[in-house]
Amino acid sequence: MVSCRSMAKALSPMMTLRDFENGYWYLDQLKNFAERIGIPAAKKLRKDELEKAIVAFLRTGNAALPTKRSLRKTGVKDVERGRNLKLRIENYTSNRETKNFIVEQARMMAPDVREKSGVWYRLNRWREEQITSGEHPTYGDLVRQYIVLNKMERFERVPHGRYINFVADFLEADKRATRAEAVAAWTELKDLDVPKDYVAWVKARAKRKGKSR
User: Fold this and answer.
1) Quick check: 105 and 157 in contact, CB under 8 A?
2) Cα–Cα distances in angstroms (integers) from residue 9 to residues 18, 24, 90, 205, in the given order
3) How far is 167 from 163, CA to CA, in rounded Å?
4) What DSSP assignment string belongs to 111-125?
5) CA separation for the pair 57, 40 (Å, rounded)
6) Could you read off the pLDDT of 88-117 as tens digits, one per residue?
7) Which residues of 114-125 are buried (b: 16+ CB within 10 A; e: fewer)?
């Protein structure tokens, strides 16, 4: 395995952008660091939002909230309001019960729909974007978007989805590869002092093979 001795061992306000982007950081590490440098509502942010905020801080020195979505949930949960297709999304709960409802309704609308890898991430971002832009989507809208996404031939790349993009690129490059092999390669990449993308993994692998000759 390629040496990772040069990688930053801990998150620091003095680290370079390269140190941050070449490292792999767990959610708790990101939340604690974001809180230390003054990013608002750090504990309530998703991992991709924390990464975005930290990158901005390392570039500019400013600790700013990276999202416009509401970070406080109040009132009765949608699941308790008798969820149906006409119900406006107000207090969404991302759990197995909600996913089952969406899948079941989608199959009734489009029996041939098949779930694609990465669809839930994109569906959740679509829901958040609709709400933050002032729209009032219903669960019916959500189900229809789930169908639209699953019928897409190819997804647009996720800006901060390094794992999602790596697995997609790995499987695209080798049609015979399995998802388990892609995940194993990602696990290896996490420990390397290189950018967390497929091209960097290929280069690191080639370099390692060259040294072993």
Assistant:
1) no
2) 13, 10, 41, 23
3) 6
4) TT--PPTTHHHHHHH
5) 12
6) 999 999 899 999 999 999 999 999 999 988
7) eeeebbeebbeb
